[in-house]
Amino acid sequence: MAKKKKKQRTPQQVQGETKTSSRREGNTAQVRRVKELRDQPVRERSVDNDILFSLPAIKAMLAALAVGIVCYVLSYFGEALGIGQMQQVFHIASYALFAISFVLLVIGRVQGKRRTAQRRAEQR
After folding, report:
1. Measuring CA to CA, which of 27, 53, 100, 105 is 20 to 30 A from 9?
2. Which domain holds residue 63?
3. Where are the beta strands (DSSP E) in the chain?
4. CA-CA distance, 75 to 85, in Å (whole number)?
5. How many angstroms separate the CA atoms of 42 and 61, rounded?
């Protein structure tokens, strides 16, 4: 029997094998990081939902957001019907209400965060 000739590998093949092994090592490290993150204790939320949704600023924000969406839809109806004045007024009103909603959301989150911290301090 004749001896089998060993194939010589090209530098590109060797480089490809090292890339594959480094990818495997990268995937292994990524899986390890995910497992470590999963094992960590869950962080407490900065704002409790029951406190957040009981605040007047958040209730006003939800109302402003709902009215803003209605105005936005009405502006498109005004455009489809060819009523330019209706489209323009409702379009401006909807964007103003969206901006007001965002400001109220930020105010509500700040108040909620403060009240949540107070509640947790009382519980400890």
Report:
1. 27
2. 49-123
3. none
4. 9
5. 29
Give the span between the Cα atoms of 77 and 82, in whole angstroms. Answer: 8
Tokens of 45: 């939320």
Mean pLDDT confidence for 37-41: 74
Q: Are 76 and 16 in contact (CB under 8 A)?
A: no
Cβ(88)–Cβ(76) under 8 Å? no
Which tens digits make up the pLDDT trace of 58-79? 999 999 999 999 999 999 999 8
Residue 31 shares a structural domain with residue 54: no
Q: Cα–Cα distance between 111 and 62 in angstroms, integer?
A: 16
Q: How many domains does one find in the chain?
A: 2
Task: Supply 119's token pair.
Answer: 């509640």
Residues 56 and 89 in one domain: yes
